[in-house]
Write a structure and sequence with these properties.
The complex is a heterodimer of chains A (111) and B (201). By secondary structure, chain A is an alpha/beta fold. Chain A has helices spanning 26-38, 56-71, 83-92, 104-110; strands at residues 2-8, 12-21, 43-47, 51-54, 75-79, 100-101. In chain B, a hairpin with a 3-residue loop joins β2 (87-94) and β3. The chains are: A alpha/beta (111), B alpha+beta (201).
């Protein structure tokens, strides 16, 4: 999986995974999220625009990133989740902690 | 239950309108094959069903299929590193009132671990299953998403689990999720999601 990370001012990093976020790629995403927090970037936005499918392993990576960010006093927000991502968030009720926002800027304002 | 009905796939009465069946190596890398089969299936179903699924319905079904496939990859062949593992036999069937999926494998018996959010295997629910439901073997159902109640954004996230969502999620996305193991050592997963009624003409 391709994952890019764009660091911005104020401890913000916008992370953009591309492709399927599942069993195969979840560990890589979690590692990157935790590394960002470790580098002082604790306001994370994961832009899901390029994610075609997300499974429970992918959700687990996002929760791992959320926990790392909150432990460091920050947060993790989701932006531009597609229909399948919104569906899996609702089915697990994890949308209550992993809030989806329609744009990166809206997620940033909340992170 | 004891009507002597034939197995769903061999019965006389209920034939799928559309079927896609593939054998897939049970590895994380080859989960793509399952997604590819789903795409082919939806393309075929579009021509055979008036109420072809779309939107969140389809997303929920695909999510359930992916979770069961990932569960097999993870647990059925614990010693099977990529390439050395076993095979999943995967089948998708469209009926006028439901979409069904079946996975079969020859791996180890599925046993939810203690504390697994999936909970213990349960006896079949009293709800009537579709006509083809009377299988030749016992089908146990999995528990729901009880463990996730009470989550809130304000809640401390320290105790939030990073795993264990897979099978409860599949259960929540479907009308039926059942698992059985035959005397011959075959694991079978059966997934059913009823279609919404066709739109009024």
């Amino acid at each position: 999986m391709e994952i890019s990370a764009e660091r911005r001012d104020g401890g913000v990093t916008v992370v953009r995974p591309e492709g399927r976020l599942d069993l195969l790629s979840a560990a890589e995403l979690k590692r990157l999220l935790v590394e960002e927090v470790g580098a002082g970037q604790n306001r994370l936005v994961v832009d899901l625009m390029g994610v075609t499918f997300i499974d429970s392993s992918g959700l687990g990576a996002l929760i791992g990133g959320l926990k790392a960010a909150r432990t460091a006093g920050g947060n993790l927000r989701l932006a531009r989740a597609g229909e399948q991502a919104l569906t899996i968030l609702e089915l697990t009720t994890l949308d209550r902690v992993l809030r989806p926002y329609p744009t990166v800027e809206a997620a940033l304002a909340a992170a | 239950m004891s009507s002597g009905r034939d197995p769903p796939d061999g019965g006389a009465g209920r034939r799928p309108l559309t079927r896609v069946a593939i054998d897939v190596p049970a590895t994380a890398e080859r989960l793509q094959d399952v997604h590819d089969a789903l795409a082919r299936f939806w393309a075929a179903v579009a021509g055979s069903l008036h109420n072809a699924p779309a939107g969140p319905w389809r997303a929920a079904f695909e999510t359930a299929v992916a979770e069961v496939a990932a569960n097999i990859v993870r647990h059925a062949y614990p010693d099977g590193a990529a390439g050395a593992g076993g095979t999943m036999r995967f089948r998708l069937d469209a009926y006028p009132d439901a979409i069904e999926a079946r996975f079969a494998d020859d791996g180890v018996d599925f046993r939810p671990s203690a504390g697994d959010a999936a909970g213990p295997l349960r006896a079949p629910p009293p709800e009537p299953a579709p006509p083809a439901a009377a299988g030749p073997v016992h089908l146990g159902d999995l528990d729901g998403l009880d463990g996730l109640d009470g989550l809130d954004d304000l809640l401390a996230t320290a105790d939030l689990a990073e795993g264990g969502y897979g099978l409860p999620l599949a259960r929540a996305a479907l009308d039926t999720l059942a698992y059985s193991r035959s005397a011959g050592g075959e694991n079978e997963w059966w997934l059913v999601k009823r279609l919404p009624p066709p739109p009024a003409e």
